[in-house]
Amino acid sequence: MYQIQNNRSKLAVSACFILITAFVITGCSGASSKNEVQKDTSNITMAAIIEANKSQNILSRHGSIFVEDSTSDSEEVYYTYVSADYMYQKSGESNIVVSEEENWECDEDNGERTFYYYWFAMDENEEKEMRSVPSDYEYIEEVYTGREKIENIQENSDGTLTITTLLGTDDVKEFYDSYQIEYPQGLDTLEQRSEYVVDGNTLEISSVYMTVFYDGSEASNATRKITYDAEQPDELNTLTELIYEYKNDKTTNERTAKVIYDYGTDREQSYEFKANQKYRVIVNTRDGYDYLYTDPEKTQEYDGGDGVSDITIYAFTEE
Question: Cα separations (Å) of 318 from 59, 116, 285, 288?
């Protein structure tokens, strides 16, 4: 399963974006010739496909990942370019964002990274901001993709495989509900059928074509094309210059942002970072910590701050 995202939200742009995983050759189903399977495909599972296409695994074999998303509900094409250093996203003709990931903090117990910070440069007015983000980009939604049932595997003459899958009504509804995606009530069936085109040896996905059906009738479709080792998009060149300008910018009028989790409990943890006042700072808290306050008594909700002063944010999982 995958979702088409804009650069600010992880919510699907429309109902057809619930894309579970099914990949087709660049936007057209059945674009390559198909023959009866000649090789043993009994070991091909959705779990194996997910593992092969995790960004970390892909970037160990390739220099970059370029993802193009389109849907029947919109004329826009959404782009994501990922390398070991940068993630670049573009939706439509504007809203270009590029980020560079660096190690923010290491867990003392196992050495794994627990925080990241990203620098963003935006094309509209060359505004820059620094942002802390506790997750990596993945182009497959692991939970629901893992629930897809493989219905058919066909071998293509170019060495790829076309894998047809089905995600059933209960799972699609659960996915829609979890992302607050609207769909008609009272449906007997709400299914998603997908076609993946994958490399016959590595299982790397080259395209997905997904169709959602309401009671057996096609409601929407979406296509994802994935290219590996693609050239860096032209727009990225200017934006990366802004990133390096930020990194090399001499810090003046420094401000501090601090986040405290579970204040006053034995689970209390905190981290802080500093930034130049001329850069906007956005703090993303851990999953589940949706209640943010500027005081430990929870009387003043965090409203984003004034962009200049030091700020301490108290993050809780409940009001």
Answer: 38, 24, 14, 9
Report the DSSP pairing between strands 149-156 and 128-133. Answer: unpaired
- The residue assigned the tokens 């497959």 is 140
Distances (CA, A) of 133 to 71, 228, 284, 311: 28, 25, 6, 18
Q: Is this prediction's pTM over 0.90?
A: no
Location of each CATH 2.60.40 domain in the chain: 251-316
pLDDT at 35: 47
CA distance 304 to 225: 37
CATH class held by domain 251-316: mainly beta
DSSP 291: E
Pair of tokens at residue 205? 């996905």
The helix/strand/coil state of 67 is strand
Query: pLDDT tens digits for 8-66?
Result: 222 222 223 333 322 222 223 333 344 444 567 778 999 999 999 998 899 999 999 99
Per the DSSP assignment, residues forming a β-bridge with 94 are: 91
Residue type, 240: T
Spatial distance between the Cα atoms of 199 and 172, rounded to a whole number of angstroms: 27
